[in-house]
Give the backbone structure.
Amino acid sequence: MLVCDDERTLREMLRVLVRRAGFTPTVVDGVTAAREALSSRDTPFDAVITDLMMPDGSGIDVLESAKARSEATQVVVITAHATTERAVEAMRKGAYDYIEKPFDNLVLLATLEKALEKGAVIGENRRLRDAIEGRDRGMIGTSRAMRELRDMLARAANAPTSTLITGESGTGKELAARALHDWGSRRDGPFIVVNCGALPENLMESELFGHVKGAFTGANAAKEGLIPAASGGTLFLDEIGELPLSLQVKLLRVLQERKVRPVGGSEEVGVDVRVVAATNRDLESEVDEGSFREDLFYRLNVIRVRIPPLRERPEDIRPLAQHLLEKHSALQARRRTLSDEAMDWLVRQPFPGNIRELENRIERAVALSTGERIELADIRPEGGGSSAELVAAPPIGEGFDLEAHLAAVERAVLFRALEASGGVRKRAAELLGMTFRQFRYRLAKHEDDPDDSVE
Ligand SMILES: Nc1ncnc2c1ncn2[C@@H]1O[C@H](COP(=O)(O)OP(=O)(O)OP(=O)(O)O)[C@@H](O)[C@H]1O
Ligand SMILES: [Mg+2]
């Protein structure tokens, strides 16, 4: 596997990760070195992970060289949020997928796994799957809500029935969807994830349904869609609420007729998929407003699984924290424990970003703590509690500047939401009930602020 990144720390992290997943990494620091590595080998690489923006060129150049060397090489692009558009370009040019920084190690492993399945590399030996599942088995939690959820998933797993999973951001919707797949009779079939909000409408259609050769400019070869690729397994439609209306109609037809027609094609192909959809939106009210089709909603909502937010089941925090600590200690190859004080503090937090937020906090603490034991200071956000103090007890007196104070409060709230979402702006916006544009606009006012403190 070829790893290409100009940033040394990321390179080293990827080296360890790839090696731990059972592959032999060749690690290079830029486009020129990547080209050399690609041309100097007798056998092509199974996969390439490349950064997008590097001093000596673009990851797209690496992609093109890799694809020219062998079509079978699967390329995963790593991108900063600001360059997502280039990532979409990379997809158009044949990249398998892209992940945004900062990323979760397991997300990268899972993406690689899927990429390699597509390149038919792992087939039998499933090394990556073992690496992932060995560390991330099942759904942790001792609360009554969690026990009921596991029961429900176990019962629903063997039904062929469409299932709708609802829950706030970071509650474990994708994990629940995987449980439905892994615990059911289709477990040996593919589990295909479609993020309905990730691609523009025109790319989305051919991504989902596939296209025939010559269907549009740039369609030099026929491509199988994700829906037919899920045949015999599970199709997970993540963020289903983001699916444009025109595609909602087309998806409905697939569910009704069990057939798909690739873009530009004249023949339909039969598909046998179990559909699991997830959303953090209130689809019922979107149906009322007319932004989500009622007929599709009823097709999907045959079984409904609701995942409660973490604040409704605080007794799960402790076992989850312990599990996530073990997971990230293993992934980062460090032995870490949590001090009682740190654990007691965690248990009292509201976690608006749910388990994802808890996980981010623990992952970061494992990475940054210097001692074996993670102390409260390692896990509590910097300036912890100060945004609350700022609102409750503003420093009024002579020279008090209301505008500056309100700006500081706004800044604290925005950064708090970013922290809860693990730096993902789209989710942070959701946590604050804003559109992404509104959030970006407000954040832009603070980002160049050289003063990092809340005050
Ligand atoms: N019950 C659980 N036990 C162990 N890990 C969990 C549990 N629930 C969630 N996680 C972990 O928390 C993280 C977030 O979960 P997941 O991605 O499934 O959430 P989501 O609801 O799909 O979030 P989003 O709406 O943000 O996409 C994942 O790393 C997942 O493995
Ligand atoms: Mg999700």
About this structure: Residues 383-455 form a domain with the Arc Repressor Mutant, subunit A fold (CATH 1.10.10). The CA atoms of residues 408 and 447 lie 12 Å apart. The chain has 21 helices and 18 strands. The pocket of magnesium ion (ligand 2) is lined by residues 173-174, 238 (CB under 6 Å).
